[in-house]
Design goal:
6 helices, mainly alpha, about 70% helix, about 0% strand
Length: about 150
């Protein structure tokens, strides 16, 4: 089970999401540009926001606070708040599903697994994941307000 969460978490590093964007462009062509453009904008905003928050809050990861919690994968950085994986997973999922509702049965469970994996792997507190999800939803809503020609 830990292996599954490690794989899901690794895919959530960006591999899955950028693969999805490339696939949408390859399959749909120009009609996919608004969806992919919004996903890229939400992703860029998410990156800036979560790096800024991590630098300001400097909350130690659970595995750094309690040595009985063993990290199952190497953390990408030192701090835990908010979960960047969850922030990106939620923002990308909401934008993609808005444009392509048929992707919901694939993307919603995947995003939930990414979020859960961060807790199971000892890298985040539940509040880190919740904050990441809420921030990701907010960024997705902002990205969906943007007009693309």
């Amino acid at each position: 089970m830990i292996r599954l969460f490690a794989v899901v978490s690794r895919l959530g590093d960006g591999v899955f999401w950028y693969g999805l964007m490339a696939a949408l462009l390859l399959i749909q062509g120009a009609p996919a540009v608004p969806a992919v453009g919004r996903m890229l904008l939400a992703g860029a905003a998410a990156l800036v926001l979560y790096k800024w928050l991590k630098a300001r809050t400097t909350r130690s990861r659970p595995c750094a606070q309690d040595h009985q919690i063993e990290p199952r994968v190497a953390p990408l950085d030192e701090y835990s708040f908010p979960s960047g994986h969850t922030l990106h997973a939620v923002s990308f999922t909401l934008v993609a599903v808005y444009h392509y509702p048929a992707l919901g049965p694939l993307l919603i469970p995947f995003a939930a697994l990414v979020a859960l994996s961060r807790i199971v792997l000892g890298l985040h507190y539940p509040s880190d994941v919740l904050a990441g999800a809420l921030l990701g939803a907010g960024l997705a809503m902002l990205a969906l307000q943007l007009s693309f020609i």
